[in-house]
Amino acid sequence: VVDPYRVATSGSYVNYRGGDPKKKDLGLELDLGTEARFPLQYGLKGTVGGQGGVLFPGSALEDASGARLNTQWIAIGRLGLLF
Question: The whole model's pTM is what?
Fold first, then answer.
C-alpha cells in the first residue's frame, strides 16, 4: 500500500502516513447488524435496526515511527417503512 501522490511528486514509496510499504496487514474488522420488522396498518411494515463496526488497524497503517492508528469504530441506528 503506497501513497500515489508521494510516488508521483517525490518518488517516495511510503504508505499515506509515511510508513513501510512492505507491510501488508490491514488489521481486523468486526461488523454486527440487526433489524426488526413489525406489521402496521394498510399492509405497511415498520423497521428498526442498528449496525456497527470496529477496526483494529494492522501494521500496513503505521506511520514512519511505527505508531498505529487508534481503533476506529462506527455505530448507526436505522428506522424504516416498507410498503
Answer: 0.68
Residue 1, classified by CB atoms within 10 Å of its CB into exposed (0-12), middle (13-18) or buried (19+), is: middle
For position 30, what pLDDT does the model report?
98
Tell me if residue 7 falls in helix, strand or coil. Answer: helix
Strand order in the sheet with 45-57: 27-39, 45-57, 72-82
Backbone angles phi, psi at 4, to 5 degrees: -65, -30
Burial of 70 (0-12, 13-18, 19+ CB in 10 A): exposed
Side-chain-facing half-sphere of 16: CA atoms under 13 Å: 5
- Of 11-20, 36-45, 58-67, which range is least confident? 11-20
